[in-house]
Amino acid sequence: MSFTNKNHWENVYETKNPDQVSWTQERPITSLDFIHSFALEKDAKIIDIGGGDSNLVDFLLDEGYENITVLDISEKALEKAKERLGKKAEKIKWIVSDILEFEPTESYDLWHDRAAFHFLTSTEQISKYVEIAEQSIRRFMILGTFSKNGPTKCSGLEISQYDENSMTKQFEKNFKKINCITQDHITPFKTTQNFIFCAFHKLIIK
Are 60 and 68 in contact (CB under 8 A)? Predict the structure, then answer.
């Protein structure tokens, strides 16, 4: 990630509506199913990494979760989410940051990331993300990326594809895999993108 990437994402969110970007979901059912399976308390600390103007936060608020943080590199993306939520936006903590420069001041019961991690393509970037996640997560992590059967680019940028083994291996030191599923995401313009989602539980390191 870099300042160049920040400019890229600010431009994307400045010039395109949700129906013009591939990642838009009406209802993020896979993420919600994983979250429900954890049976979290309503005051659990949840962070959505690269959340942008995703609808996930809307559903979490409607379900009564009250300690939600959304992080994104694009200030414009978060502005769009705030506008959509209106008064409800005041219930959310909003953080504008490159994930690789994120310095958490609290730890999270749930770390959710759909389609941010796969933009990290160098060993150094991936290692830094893993390090930040290890420091920040208390209990659960959900990661969604393009699968080995998915696209090789998103929004004109190179991405890293994963399968169950390669994703698990990145986090095996401090996380235990709960399960992984693959899912076809139908974009607003009716193309198909194959994702892999994995859920992890933080290990207690003795």
Answer: yes
